[in-house]
């Protein structure tokens, strides 16, 4: 373990399989770096096919016993896990900031958000209700049971490395499933820290397994090919989701896919501009613009376009950029060179097509992976950011003239994860909320994620829902049982 990481008490650089922290079978390791400084945090076990096979064996054995544990007992384990996360909130937050780059204040918020899924599903474990159905025969009774799906493969992203795991682990364990987690290569340390706390919380060996890897095809391939793995839950890009969907076909896995977004944020002329600006900042610039529900296309009614643009630019220009461990930092670095290059390409494309950067618009003078928070005016539908997720701190402002035009522009996307709009007209709020093609809609609000509500999209933004009571159903099978010969 590297000396730079010695003040991170929950840091672990080994894979977690069958209740044991262990190196990769072939001894391979890969570097994990701090995106703000470039410093190496750890050299982590680089799992391959044999490690995945070992995890499948461990998870299948654990499932057979874990499914028999009462819902109340499973709930106690999850609740204790969530409590431990909050007890170690500062340690987890510091690890997250160093590994992923987000400001410490946001990192602490993510830890609390992630813990909420464990607490929520600890309670939902006892609500996997079946039903008794009125029978079609006098001598029979019909019973519907809910049973755990089985071994789950979970592939999670780097932008919320705690929350995207607990949002899957919580319902999986509550339902009685075991799980194998393949965390993002940029943020495996957060996943392994969660595993350490899971052990302390009493998660039995093999119920949770973590496979860090730099060679995803080798590690994921056995999971997708195995008939033992009955479900896939994936959060990531639409392109990768489609590939995994195809790979799931041969074994007919249950799948939950939370894929890309291209969220519209509409500001109508009757909106409170200050409220709209605050909501836009929260939606667009949280986590340096690196969230799947970020506002990606900001649509502003012509009558207030200039006033809104000026107000937004002032707020964006005031945000402090830097290492997330520094006081007052609101914008950290991009996650890696690929993410940085995409942001730069989108800005260059916009400026080349007549856009104007009224604040930002270039690499930050801090260098490295830092980019200036940017507001671009004059956006048109031929800009790259109109059809691609930027995943960075760039707000492109489109102009519209009517409600119908705004809805048409908002829905002109293959994806439909989230959407936002600002208005003080109650009738319009209902009309537009129903008209938007998105799985989640925020009205006069830029942050809508919560453990108590269903999270997921429509169109090419994926399948299934996470969080809420609906999230538990994703990990349950429905079994129909007929009791015959009951007459007499």
Automatic annotation (TrEMBL):
Keyword Oxidoreductase: yes
Aminoacyl-tRNA synthetase is among the record's keywords: no
Annotated family: Belongs to the aldehyde dehydrogenase family.
Active site (record annotation): 258
Stretches assigned to the Aldehyde dehydrogenase domain: 25-481
EC number: 1.2.1.-
Full protein name: Succinate-semialdehyde dehydrogenase
GO molecular function, one term: succinate-semialdehyde dehydrogenase (NAD+) activity
Record PANTHER family: SUCCINATE-SEMIALDEHYDE DEHYDROGENASE, MITOCHONDRIAL
Keywords tagged on the record: Oxidation, Oxidoreductase, Potassium
InterPro entries: Ald_DH/histidinol_DH (IPR016161), Ald_DH_C (IPR016163), Ald_DH_CS_CYS (IPR016160), Ald_DH_CS_GLU (IPR029510), Ald_DH_N (IPR016162), Aldehyde_DH_dom (IPR015590), Aldehyde_DH_Superfamily (IPR050740), Succ_semiAld_DH (IPR010102)
Pfam families hit by this protein: Aldedh
Enzyme class: oxidoreductase
CDD domains: ALDH_F5_SSADH_GabD (cd07103)
Gene3D superfamilies assigned: Aldehyde Dehydrogenase, Chain A, domain 1 (3.40.605.10), Aldehyde Dehydrogenase, Chain A, domain 2 (3.40.309.10)
Highest classification ranks of the organism: Bacteria, Pseudomonadati, Pseudomonadota, Alphaproteobacteria, Hyphomicrobiales
Biological process annotations from GO: gamma-aminobutyric acid catabolic process
């Amino acid at each position: 373990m590297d000396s730079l990481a010695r003040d991170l008490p929950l840091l672990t650089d080994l894979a977690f399989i069958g209740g044991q922290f262990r190196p990769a079978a072939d001894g391979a390791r890969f570097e994990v770096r701090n995106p703000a400084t470039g410093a190496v945090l750890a050299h982590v076990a680089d799992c391959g096919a044999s490690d995945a096979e070992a995890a499948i064996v461990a998870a299948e054995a654990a499932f057979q016993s874990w499914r028999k544990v009462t819902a109340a007992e499973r709930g106690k384990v999850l609740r204790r896990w969530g409590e431990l996360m909050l007890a170690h909130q500062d340690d987890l937050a510091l690890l997250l900031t160093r590994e992923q780059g987000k400001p410490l204040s946001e990192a602490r918020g993510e830890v609390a958000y992630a813990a909420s899924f464990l607490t929520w599903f600890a309670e939902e474990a006892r609500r996997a209700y079946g039903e008794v159905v009125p029978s079609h025969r006098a001598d029979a009774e019909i019973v519907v049971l809910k049973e755990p799906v089985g071994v789950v493969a979970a592939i999670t992203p780097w932008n919320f490395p705690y929350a995207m795991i607990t949002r899957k682990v919580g319902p999986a364990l509550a339902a009685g499933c075991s799980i194998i987690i393949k965390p993002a290569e940029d943020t495996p340390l957060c996943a392994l820290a969660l595993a350490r706390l899971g052990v302390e919380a009493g998660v039995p060996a093999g119920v949770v397994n973590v496979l860090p890897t730099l060679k995803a095809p080798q590690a994921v391939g056995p999971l997708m090919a195995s008939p033992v793995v009955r479900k896939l839950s994936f959060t990531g890009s639409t392109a990768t989701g489609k590939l995994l969907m195809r790979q799931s076909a041969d074994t007919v896995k249950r799948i939950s896919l939370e894929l890309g977004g291209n969220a519209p944020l509409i500001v109508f002329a009757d909106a409170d501009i200050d409220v709209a600006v605050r909501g836009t900042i929260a939606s667009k610039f949280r986590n340096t613009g690196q969230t799947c529900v970020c506002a990606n296309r900001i649509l502003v009614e012509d009558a207030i376009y200039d006033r809104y643009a000026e107000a937004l630019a002032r707020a964006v220009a005031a945000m402090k950029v830097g290492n997330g461990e520094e006081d007052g930092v609101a914008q950290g670095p991009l996650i890696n060179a690929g993410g940085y290059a995409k942001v730069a390409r989108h800005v260059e494309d916009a400026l080349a097509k007549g856009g104007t950067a009224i604040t930002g618009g270039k690499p930050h003078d801090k260098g490295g992976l830092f980019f200036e928070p940017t507001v671009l005016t004059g956006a048109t539908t031929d800009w790259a950011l109109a059809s691609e997720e930027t995943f960075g701190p760039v707000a492109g402002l489109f102009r519209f003239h009517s409600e119908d035009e705004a809805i048409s522009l908002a829905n002109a996307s293959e994806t439909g994860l989230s959407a936002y709009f600002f208005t003080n007209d109650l009738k319009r709020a209902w009309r537009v909320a129903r008209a938007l093609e998105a799985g989640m809609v925020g009205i006069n609000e830029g942050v809508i994620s919560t453990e108590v509500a269903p999270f997921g999209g429509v169109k090419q933004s994926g399948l299934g829902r996470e969080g809420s009571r609906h999230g538990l159903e994703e990990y349950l099978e429905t079994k129909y049982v007929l009791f015959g010969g009951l007459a007499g």
